[in-house]
Amino acid sequence: MAYKEIYDELKAKMTDDKAANETMLRKEVERFIKEENREGIDAAGALIMENMPEEKRNEIIRITHIDGERMDNIYKKVDEYLNAKNINEAKKLAEKLYKKITVEFKEGEKAKFVSLRNPFEDELYQFLYKPEKTLNRTPFDFCQYISTYAYILVETGDPLTAIPVLEQAQEFNPVDVGPKFEMAEIYKLIHNKARLIEVSRETMKVASSPVAIARIYANVGYILTEFGEYEDALAFYTASAMMAPSPVIPREMQHLADLKGSPVTYIGKDKVKEILEDKYDIHFGPDPDVIRVASELAAVFIKNQDLPNALQALKLTYNLTLDENIKKMIFKYDPTAAMQFAEEEKRINEIKKKNQAENNNANE
To answer: How far apart are the C-alpha atoms of 258 and 65, rounded to whole Å?
Structure first.
């Protein structure tokens, strides 16, 4: 449904009771957030603003606008500048956003702002951090906005300044792997092995996809290669390939072999697990708590007959576990998923074949 249709439909539900209108509209916003319906969120948000007393509306406008322009529209311009390789103009706007966010949305004594993006992140945040303060949802994804500013700082030659900026991004959403990966890139850049391994451990606790987990292992493999710890680096690269095949890993392994002056030798799963967990305290495979939160969330949504969210949680759980029973449940609620699974399996097999061919050529 288009923005205007949603707007008109919600407008028709409104009465002369402003308090009742606000309650109804906020429930609709929550529903649209769950459905990831951007036009629904915008339409309900616009009506919430219209329904407010003028004084309150003006205050909302004051904290969410810069020079008369809404913050999300400014961020779109940042993104456009980055795509056009105009990083200096992007930096000016990103810095404005950063300053506005950190001034207007500070954590208080009894409440804090969060930019949690979906029900899974909400549940994982509650499970891991057990917040005692009231959580207020930010109007936009401030974690992303601040992380982008940090990225720009790195790209313009100021990686050390980007570190505290990324720490602030994580305050808005500590279960988003994005700023953690940006932090890892900085530690790779400044050759800080200890901090890269530490941030990798932290990222493992919230990583909710095989691709994210594979990237964590690859990051550690990279820094260990740089420090000449080739056997351990090979274990992490192997773990990365096991989690999510990527064309990058064979090239990294070839680079490792060139540095050590001999071909890499196969390391079995048990040895990989031993090196990761016993030597580096980095879990091999998805964190059990992440799986638990996803599977329990799926069960709640199924019970409440919320199929769109149930399917999202089931797919997340399946990707982490490859449990065939979960796959059957996904097919039960979404018969079209079979084709998606087949296409993804084909894509992964093609990467595996290409990687194997490169490995064979490298060892000849």
So the answer is: 54
Closest CA to 193 of 167, 226, 217, 216: 226
Assigned token pair, 270: 């048990």
Contact partners, residue 357, CB within 8 Å, separation at least 6: none
pLDDT tens-digit readout, 1-23: 688 899 999 999 999 898 898 89
Only one residue has tokens 């915008």, namely 42
DSSP state of 225: H
What is the rounded CA–CA span in Å between residue 280 and residue 274? 9
Q: Taking a C-beta distance cutoff of 8 angstroms, is the pair 206, 175 a contact?
A: yes
Would you mind telling me the total number of residues written for the chain in this entry?
364
Q: Which helix (H) or strand (E) holds 2?
A: none
Contact predicate 213/244, CB 8 Å: yes
Bridge partners of 136, per DSSP, are: 113
Higher per-residue confidence, 292 vs 117 = 292
